[in-house]
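seq:
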Amino acid sequence: MSNTVLQRVVRRETHSPRTVAAVIVLVAVSAAAVLAGIEIVRDVAGRDPMLLSPGAGLQWLADLPQAQPAGAVIAGGVIAVAVGLILIWLALAPGRRPKQAMAGCSTAVVCDNGVIASSIAEQVRRTFDLARGAVVVGVGSRSIDVTARPEPGQSIEKARLRRTAEEELARYDLSRTLTVHVRIAKPIDEEGDVR
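struct:
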């Protein structure tokens, strides 16, 4: 396979096609167009409108700027602008799936963020001899958050924790560079009080 084809395959696996949003918009626009078409045909045929005649609808739109109460018109305008901005964001922003592409392979390899998080958590847990569930890792599209909770009396150096997580991440050889953020939570003693 050519490199371009592999890149296209990886992009399809790591990015969302926004199909649901596109279908919702398409259904809404189609329903509005069908309703407008039915109303136009009924108006031309001399029949009463189902909801609103085309002439009355156009007149309502023309009178909208002077409509009362003005607060309702402004609120409707704000909602319309918000919906428009959301649709523009959906159209332009890349929808990322929770997956990362591996760069060091001659074939297309995509790894789920959950697998990366589990691997880093297990490596940190073993390195620092922590209990199961004492390490929580979250993997995003640009960063990885590692939180370790040591046992009472056990200390963890933040720099060593970061280095351990970065070394495990480097084994994946991801095509995107992810920033590692680490946090050491306070230990909990036997009574459940935070020390």
